[in-house]
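Figure 3 (text version): structure tokens given as input.
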């Protein structure tokens, strides 16, 4: 996702074994740099978060401790405070400047009203290695963060690990059609990796079951943002920290001639004077299944006294 510049060498380096693998350091720096202006640019993230919040209306839950995993600037944690004022809230992100924004939000104009609630705890951490003990949350919430991990099954297993049996994980992420116009425009010009690879919703459902969740519910919708030109698409992505962090990205900046060809390739998608950027948004929620074995490996059998005498 590099902007145009003076021409770079046309010689292409050897392709990495995993061209779509994400570099954690690059991601952390990108989101750290975007933190101050993130809220202004994160239109899609706000909309998806609001749609996720509506889904909480459909579940019966009274949590005592909730985790906003990949919290960004803390908008989700703020919503959870309104919904569950008695719950302890922990906001976690890999980018410390994002956590600073989240803490500032918690102590901002709503301080007087929020003072009746429990304070926000801000914790730095990785979705693939959550810095919490097992079974300590009733709700794990994660809005558009899981697409930035290399080990999605591992991250979902971590959600299951830190949830109490019967606890709920609710998340959103991106599916394979996300930014398809951008991916195809770049593919018409070179063979580098320019857009991340995203998991299919059916695979995510299988991952949840394998991680120890019961009754996963997965669905998807497509949301299209429109822009006057390709540069505006790229500016929006940069403003939210969504830079190209894949291992197979171009080592140098793209030359002007190549960039002109990318713009021309993207133009074929123009409709009614605007260029689309498609996002396949995957929503999921699932309950942490009851343990079937004890820590020492013995089977756990539960009896329901109320079922005696029934057939």
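Below: residues designed for each position.
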């Amino acid at each position: 996702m590099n902007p145009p510049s003076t021409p770079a060498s046309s010689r292409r380096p050897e392709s990495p074994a995993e061209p779509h693998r994400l570099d954690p350091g690059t991601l952390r720096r990108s989101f750290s740099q975007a933190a101050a202006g993130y809220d202004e640019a994160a239109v899609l993230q706000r909309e998806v978060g609001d749609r996720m919040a509506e889904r909480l209306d459909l579940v019966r839950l009274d949590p005592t401790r909730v985790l906003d995993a990949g919290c960004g600037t803390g908008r989700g944690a703020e919503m959870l405070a309104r919904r569950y004022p008695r719950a302890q809230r922990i906001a976690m992100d890999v980018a410390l400047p994002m956590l600073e924004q989240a803490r500032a939000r918690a102590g901002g104009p709503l301080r007087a009203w929020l003072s009746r609630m429990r304070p926000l705890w801000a914790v730095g951490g990785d979705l693939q290695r959550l810095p919490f003990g097992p079974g300590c949350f009733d709700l794990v919430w994660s809005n558009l963060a899981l697409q930035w991990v290399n080990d999605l099954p591992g991250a979902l297993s971590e959600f299951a690990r830190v949830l109490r049996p019967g606890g709920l994980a609710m998340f959103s992420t991106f599916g394979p059609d996300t930014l398809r116009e951008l991916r195809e425009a770049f593919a018409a010009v070179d063979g580098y990796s320019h857009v991340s690879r995203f998991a299919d919703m059916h695979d995510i459902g299988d991952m949840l079951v394998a991680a120890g969740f019961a009754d996963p519910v997965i669905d998807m919708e497509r949301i299209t943002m429109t822009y006057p030109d390709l540069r505006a698409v790229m500016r929006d992505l940069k403003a939210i920290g969504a830079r190209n962090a894949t291992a197979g990205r171009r080592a140098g900046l793209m030359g002007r001639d190549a960039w002109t060809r990318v713009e021309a390739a993207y133009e074929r998608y123009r409709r009614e004077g605007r260029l689309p950027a498609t996002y396949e948004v995957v929503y999921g929620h699932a309950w942490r299944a009851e343990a079937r074995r004890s820590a020492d490996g013995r089977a756990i059998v539960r009896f329901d006294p109320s079922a005696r005498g029934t057939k």
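The beta strands are 4-5, 65-69, 88-93, 120-124, 137-143, 163-174, 213-227, 254-255, 275-288.
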